[in-house]
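User: I'm putting together a teaching handout on how multi-component assemblies are represented. Below are the sequence lines for each component of a complex, exactly as they appear in our records. Could you produce the 3D structure of the whole assembly as structure tokens, so the students can see both representations side by side? Please keep the chain order the same as the input.
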Amino acid sequence: MNLRVIPKLDIKGPNLVKGIHFEGLRVLGKPEYFARHYAENGADELVYMDAVASLYERNSLLHIVEKTAAEIHIPLTVGGGLRGLDDIREMLRAGADKVSINTAAIKRPELIREAARRFGSSTIVVSVEAYRTPSGGYEAYTDYGRQGTGIDAVEWAVRAVELGAGELLVTSIEREGTGLGFDLELTRRIADLVPVPVIAAGGAGTPAHVLQVVQDGHADAVCLASLLHYHCVTLGDFHDGDFQGEGNTLFLSDRGRGFSKIQGTPLADLKRLLSKSGVPCRV
Amino acid sequence: MGEAQPVVVIIDYGLGNLFSIQQACLQAGVRAEVSSSPRALELADGVILPGMGAFGDAMAALRQLDLVAPLRDFVDSGRQFLGICLGMQLVMSESYEFGLHRGLGYIEGPVVRFEGNRPDGRPLKVPLIGWEAVTCPPGRRTWQDTLLEGVAEGEHFYFVHSYYPKPIEASVVLSWSQYGPVGFCSAIEHQDITALQYHPERSGSAGARVYRNLARKLTLQNSIRARSHGL
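Assistant: Of course. Below is the structure of the complete assembly, with chains in the same order as your input.
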């Protein structure tokens, strides 16, 4: 029962980016370089998330997926803007092992059933992006955390599994990119209700946060971005210097200083630490 | 003749990610053709039966494509057969996934669902998704001359499944794995049939070794066949 540690790479055009609450995207480098580094350092899977998810940039993502899948032999999940069965098929053909869907599934929940039937339940990850409501509940959001739906996120998570989701990627939009720690309650509420694995995302700033979301949040896997990326950018250049398209590259020039809430951590160190603390990992 | 690159046919019956399997074959020096035609099996040096999804649907698809008898002929001809994930479970005689379904029946025994609790009392999450250790089962001394040759004892492979096979004959168990309280058969070998519950094409360098072993076996098989045909 090894915990899966899954680096998440948010992609905009040809670049790896990272924001806070999914906003204010900074360019960190080339996704391929990060992907290779993580695969060589014990990543159990990778998630690519299209941060813009416009049709216009879809071909760029397909190309990155193709290159990655041919080079890196660990499972790859791709999400962001997949609208229907044809989009999913195209991504799987490009080499993705799984796809993650949110917006299209909320608009038409039957898509989950159809996709699970066509491609296998374990190929379909439903991404639940949630905001805490003033009344202590959670609301599901779509469009990379931009659009409220009025739907109860916990109820939606249960429904998504009934429709055939093989696992859930549960993100707290409030915590996303902040380094303040996961939303343990959100993770635990969903993890305790569904029979399938729950991947927790959003908020990890230290290795202790990761431990917490497994022990107290009952997460079956963790999806990490800043915590790992902010270590990577201190290692050297993960880019070729040519940044196509717009994007705030200021972050790169000061090597991530000024984000004190996030303690950039090497993946292998994190996994060793988790194992020592009683959460078995593949080290 | 024996110098020619071996050819495997990856059976395309509409289920499973064939891209990564094809890539892994190519990187091991095996030409891999994706096909759903019974005719393609006749010419193949090896067959890979992949698969994701439900057992009953998969058997229905194989029947629909008229592949059941050609697969049986292929297996009886003594060429390499590799089943992966659902493709492993299909070689068993029956499965209890959504009712009772007959399998291809190369190996006696049922396919059953994971059930049980974690050490902390919460129920096991199903499917099992993740990397688990693969060990030599009790009673088997080595993986020499199998597709796992050179794989370290306890090496981790990537698993995605809700059901697992329970072969009646212990001697066919090639590897053993553990999910919470459940110990299960994670690989089978019987004559020229190998079946893996895990995905070697998604299991990094250990998985790449499995495909290189397959390439070696195919090359050896072809040179023996060439000799016996007096070529």
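A couple of points students might notice: Chain A has a mean pLDDT of 89. The interface with chain B takes residues 1-4, 39, 44, 69-70, 73-75, 92-95, 97, 119-123, 166-167, 192, 195-198, 218, 220-221, 282 of chain A (CB under 8 Å).
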